[in-house]
Amino acid sequence: MFDKASTIIRDMDKLSFDYVPERLVHREGQMSRLEMYFRPLAESGRSSYAFLTGSVGTGKTATAKRFCENTARYLSRSGRPIDVMFVNCRNRNTETGVILELLRHFDKGFPERGFSPDEMMRAFAAHIESGGVPAIIVLDEVDVLLKKSNVDLVYQLTRFSDGVRGKAGISLILISQHSIYGMLDEASMSTFGRGNAITFDKYARDELYSIAKARAEESLFGGKYSDDAIELIADVDSEFGDARLAIELLRDSAVIAEGHPQGSIDTEDVREAKANINSVVTESKLTGLDTNRKLALLAIARAMKSNLYISITVAEKTYAVVCEEYGHEPRKHTQFWTYVQDMDRQNLLETVVRSEKEGGRSTYISLPDIPSKVLAKKLEVLLEGRTAASAEEF
Ligand SMILES: Nc1ncnc2c1ncn2[C@@H]1O[C@H](COP(=O)(O)OP(=O)(O)OP(=O)(O)O)[C@@H](O)[C@H]1O
Ligand SMILES: [Mg+2]
Predict the structure, then answer these.
(1) Counting C-beta atoms within 10 Å of the first and last residue's C-beta, which end of the chain has fewer, N or C?
(2) How far away, in angstroms, is 21 Cα from ligand 2 center?
(3) Tens digits of per-residue pLDDT, 329-354?
């Protein structure tokens, strides 16, 4: 048990969502904005503020963590320690819960019950003042807390440095997928003025490619993943722009590939990982296809094998073979083309138009959602059940 060494995954920890890489590619802009807003803290220990916003998996949490760690490291080199406190407000979604978590940074055994929020806040302030060390508090997913109209906590934290007369201030980083303007009181609004907001856009396809590639280099053995597999992860994820999904696909593909004799990640593993995570190819969609389209899709699945894309010409050749096997007259090129476009609309496959080296452009087909072998098997089962009755459809 547990004695079989992994042949693909070198370091599983680096594939976990909590791992924060040393370098966050494509987030240099956000990092330098944070640096700009936190200059008061770095230069004179004064409170600084930033609000990070953007949709799921765009690197908000990771960037905040990396920034705090780098800042703490930088300041400690010049003998100026800071405290960093990170609270996820989804886990601690009441004001008391958040203050308790903050207090436990100083006093691990602080009791869950028996103190009012005010008393807890005073105890927390006493720790900050006696320590004399500036703190950065990160309130992640803060909208969950603010929805419960707990604006007072944010207000108290922003006013905190007034009380200690600029000695050891509290700096705040608020993070939320949604805008929090309008959820804050006016005083906090002015602290988190729009000027302090940093937006995180969804990652573009090529950005996802470099994130997945960098993570593969860090966590997997060299030569144990194909570049096509990484390209496919980026393709699959491009619709979402979510780095978490890219990492999840990479990790699941690696685990799937561990089971292979050849022991390296290819595009089929990525398709299987995607199918396991959230397949848009449902049984009912396939069942709903007529025989012509089923035959066309079966041909595409068979021709795909472990390729990332196949050209429509290659698919059509296999289509002729498949039709013969099932005793059907193949339809003309324009009709085949219509089937492909139709199935693209249903998200059963994807098409891209690419320029050829020899000039001209041709259409390529990919199957981002399902391993081609699994798809072919499903279609064969469906077609075999229907071959006798399907003649009239032609
Ligand atoms: N630029 C990047 N380079 C490398 N890894 C990244 C990058 N951006 C995000 N990640 C990784 O992707 C995952 C999701 O990122 P993160 O948790 O920061 O997203 P988020 O914006 O906080 O999402 P949510 O709103 O769902 O909390 C993490 O594992 C993180 O390490
Ligand atoms: Mg997050």
Answers:
(1) N
(2) 15
(3) 999 999 999 999 989 888 889 888 88
